[in-house]
Design goal:
The structure holds 2 protein chains of 2 kinds. Chain A is of the alpha+beta class. In chain A, 44% of the residues lie in helices and 27% in strands. By secondary structure, chain B is an alpha/beta fold. A 5-stranded parallel β-sheet of chain B has the order 2-1-3-4-5, with helices on both faces. In chain B, helix 3 links the parallel strand 3 and strand 4. The longest helix of chain B has 13 residues. The N and C termini of chain B lie close together (12 Å). The chains are: A alpha+beta, B alpha/beta.
């Protein structure tokens, strides 16, 4: 997957975070990927003219700020379900905006329900194959990784 | 009198975000109702006077497309303005919804986009009030 596609995905993530939560994400390509046990992971799978999944792996301080800003409540009032719901909605929005760029705006996709993955499940799901795109970003030095998978069989079709 | 609005979205975070946005928008709000799918949304419409529906597309039980079709079939609800707020990316599907009379807004949105869409829909006189 070329640099231009990575740049487009990065722009969608940046725009989404700014509109959803007034947060400004920047590329952080030189660091190692976030360890799954140090973060919260949510993913959505999609089917259509091709299929695959998109996942966000986000450090908890970033996620708390994201959820607090999205919901308009103080971060001390946040409960675990707020964090999970905010991350799932965010991954859903990013995937929904990304697929028309990847597949063209005439393409029809079905995006499944987002879900939170345990660290061990995230490890198994996201490291079992090579992602089409792995984009490393951060906000205030706290990391967030985006994994995009497009099934190999579909790419060859 | 304020505007009565029904928000139909399966994400509680998104319903909260839309409500927060409505409160920030400066619109004169009446009652704001929430539903997590089309069936719940139609049930609320059957018993509460509603000036505007804000509707997601992809939801379990009954999606936004089917809810809008059911609204159009019912003389009591067919003229209620609908604003679709969704991640839907398919041009074909979006065009179909716009042809049915909906205004389409892609997530993520800004408060200004929501406010302008509501003002536009309510000022064109196509509501059932």
């Amino acid at each position: 997957m070329g640099d231009s596609k990575k740049k487009e995905l990065r722009k969608i993530v940046s725009d989404s975070m700014e509109k959803l939560a007034f947060m400004f994400f920047a590329s952080d390509a030189l660091r190692e990927p976030v360890l799954f046990q140090d973060a919260v992971t949510a993913e959505v799978t999609y089917t259509g003219v091709f299929s695959g999944r998109l996942a966000l792996v986000m450090a908890e301080p970033v996620l708390k700020e994201l959820a607090a800003n999205m919901l308009g409540i103080d971060s001390e009032e946040l409960e675990l379900n707020h964090l999970h719901d905010a991350l799932m909605e965010t991954v859903n929005i990013i995937c929904g905006n990304w697929l028309p760029i990847e597949g063209g705006d005439e393409a029809v996709f079905h995006i499944g329900s987002p879900r939170v993955l345990s660290p061990s499940e995230a490890e198994a799901v996201l490291t079992g194959q090579i992602p089409s795109i792995l984009e490393k970003m951060s906000v205030d030095e706290e990391p967030c990784d985006i994994y995009f998978f497009r099934d190999e069989a579909d790419k060859l079709a | 009198m304020g505007i009565n609005i029904l928000i139909v979205d399966d994400s509680s975070v998104m319903r909260t975000m839309i409500l927060k946005t409505l409160r920030m928008s400066g619109l004169s709000l009446g009652d704001v109702y929430g539903a997590s799918n089309g069936v719940e949304g139609l049930e609320i419409l059957s018993r509460q006077w509603t000036d505007l529906v804000i509707l997601d597309i992809n939801m379990p039980v009954m999606n936004g497309e089917d809810m809008m079709i059911r609204m159009k079939e019912n003389p009591e609800t067919r003229d209620i303005p609908v604003i679709i707020i969704s991640t839907e990316g398919s041009k074909t599907r979006i065009e179909g919804l716009v042809k049915m009379g909906a205004t389409f807004i892609r997530k993520p949105f800004t408060p200004e986009i929501i406010r302008d869409a509501i003002n536009q829909r309510l000022s064109t006189g196509d509501n059932h009030g």
